[in-house]
Specification:
Blueprint lengths: L6 H24 L23 H6 L2 H4 L24 H23 L10 H38 L1
Helix pairs in contact: 1-4, 4-5
Length: 161
């Protein structure tokens, strides 16, 4: 811990900083122009271990809990809501996939901020902050990856039909 503070101030600062990080990253990612988001980039590619989304369905039972996750896009004017499909045309599905990539990026970026908390927290509290970042963001990342795999499959079927 580089900065010595009373515990109650550490807790208050932790809550405020996490709020600022979540909101700032979420807002800033909505401002990134579409042309800078590559849905085929390495980070977004489907992995063998995902088994075409079956890992999420069979092992993680994602269909039972993914609807309980919040959709932060509703907080911002430029946000693209991803709770429900509102169309099944190619353009909308492509936009949905792009926005899922945008959301996944935001969650990864938020996780990257977690070591910052070691500056004013005890080492063990810094580890708790990293665990918090993972517990809050990984389920959202999994949901984004699952949806992207599904919608890319649908889009590919539409293109070959």
């Amino acid at each position: 811990m580089l900065i010595e503070l009373p515990v109650h101030w550490i807790i208050i600062i932790d809550v405020i900083v996490w709020f600022i990080v979540h909101m700032s990253v979420s807002y800033l990612i909505t401002l990134v122009p579409k042309q800078y988001i590559n849905i085929d980039a390495w980070i977004y590619r489907e992995r063998k271990w995902e088994d075409q989304g079956k890992l999420y369905e069979k092992i993680l039972k994602i269909k039972k809990w993914k609807d309980m996750l919040p959709d932060g896009a509703a907080l911002f004017r430029k946000g693209f809501r991803k709770k429900r499909l509102t169309s099944v045309n190619k353009e909308y599905l492509h936009q949905f996939i792009l926005e899922v990539c945008r959301a996944e990026s935001a969650h990864w970026i938020v996780i990257l901020f977690s070591p910052l908390f070691f500056l004013w927290n005890y080492w063990w509290a810094g580890i708790i902050m990293i665990l918090y970042a993972l517990m809050v963001n990984i389920p959202c990342i999994l949901a984004q990856r699952y949806n992207r795999i599904r919608f890319k499959r649908i889009l590919n079927k539409m293109s070959t039909a």
